[in-house]
């Protein structure tokens, strides 16, 4: 039999059982800011959350390189297009798309009606999907493919740009498995670029050389560092038989 003072707030006899003691949780880390210089010379400053369990508190190289790629080809890829970025952390490619003339997009916290309207019938969808440094989460590849199937407009011109860096080089095969699944789902995949960055994003990361399952010779270390400095870009679009069918 419960005491009369028991309630939904966890109080029992004046003792709060379900409230963590003061100081139990670490205080939220402060936001940080990162800059990205456009080809035009202008600088875009993005606000990053202090911490995110899926690493959304970094401005990743894939997002930077993809943003340059979009800016260089804005008239073809972005201007007047309906663009959706998946898994946007900083949202830099989305911001660059907006700057380059993409149709007005969705602002977090606003009504999602504009986004959902693109998904309400088979002929709807987005002209361009952006996936920047999302392939690291291998267990979610199937969901990403499913999102492409449901949100990419079924036309010959609509496509997804998938850019990533193998920050864990020993798992590169698992990163690339995403594209095998895309082909199985009815997409055609084309590698469109490979860019080597001046330095690795995490200089303190020892990479493969620290893992005793792998060789620690100098060649392995150099290959490992090169991969961690490389951004790969892929174009993913519907096979011809999948276009305009709604299925």
Topology:
Elements: E1 11-12, E2 15-16, E3 32-37, E4 43-48, H1 61-72, H2 74-77, E5 83-86, H3 92-99, H4 113-117, E6 128-132, H5 141-151, E7 159-164, H6 172-184, E8 187-196, H7 218-228, E9 230-238
Parallel strand pairs: 5-6, 6-7
Antiparallel strand pairs: 1-2, 3-4, 7-9, 8-9
Helix pairs in contact: 1-3
Number of helices: 7
Strand order of the largest sheet: 5-6-7-9-8
Order of helices and strands: EEEEHHEHHEHEHEHE
Chain oligomer state: single chain
- Give the C-alpha Rg: 22 Å
Question: How can the largest sheet be summarized?
Answer: 5 strands, mixed
Q: First CA to last CA: what distance?
A: 58 Å
Structural class: alpha/beta
Low-confidence stretches: none
**DSSP helix fraction:** 25-40%
Cα shape: globular
Based on DSSP secondary structure assignment, what is the total number of beta strands? 9
Strand content: 15-25%
**What is the residue-mean pLDDT, rounded to a whole number?**
80
């Amino acid at each position: 039999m419960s005491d009369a003072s028991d309630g939904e707030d966890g109080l029992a006899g004046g003792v709060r059982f379900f409230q963590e003691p003061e100081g139990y949780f670490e205080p939220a880390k402060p936001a940080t800011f990162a800059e990205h210089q456009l080809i035009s010379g202008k600088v875009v400053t993005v606000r990053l959350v202090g911490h995110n369990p899926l690493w959304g508190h970094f401005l990743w190289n894939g997002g930077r390189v993809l943003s340059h790629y979009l800016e260089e080809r804005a008239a073809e890829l972005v201007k007047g297009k309906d663009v959706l970025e998946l898994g946007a952390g900083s949202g830099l490619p989305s911001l660059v798309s907006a700057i380059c003339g993409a149709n007005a997009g969705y602002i977090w916290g606003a009504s999602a009606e504009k986004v959902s309207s693109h998904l309400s019938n088979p002929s709807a969808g987005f002209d361009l999907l952006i996936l920047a440094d999302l392939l690291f989460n291998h267990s979610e590849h199937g969901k990403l493919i499913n999102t492409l199937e449901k949100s990419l407009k079924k036309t010959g011109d609509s496509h997804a740009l998938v850019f990533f860096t193998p920050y864990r080089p020993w798992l590169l095969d698992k990163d690339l498995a995403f594209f095998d699944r895309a082909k199985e789902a009815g997409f055609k995949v084309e590698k469109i670029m490979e860019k080597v960055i001046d330095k690795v994003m995490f200089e303190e990361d020892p990479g493969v050389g620290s893992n005793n399952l792998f060789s620690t010779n100098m060649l392995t270390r150099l290959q490992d560092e090169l991969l961690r400095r490389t951004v790969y870009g892929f174009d993913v679009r519907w096979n011809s038989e999948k276009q305009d069918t709604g299925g």
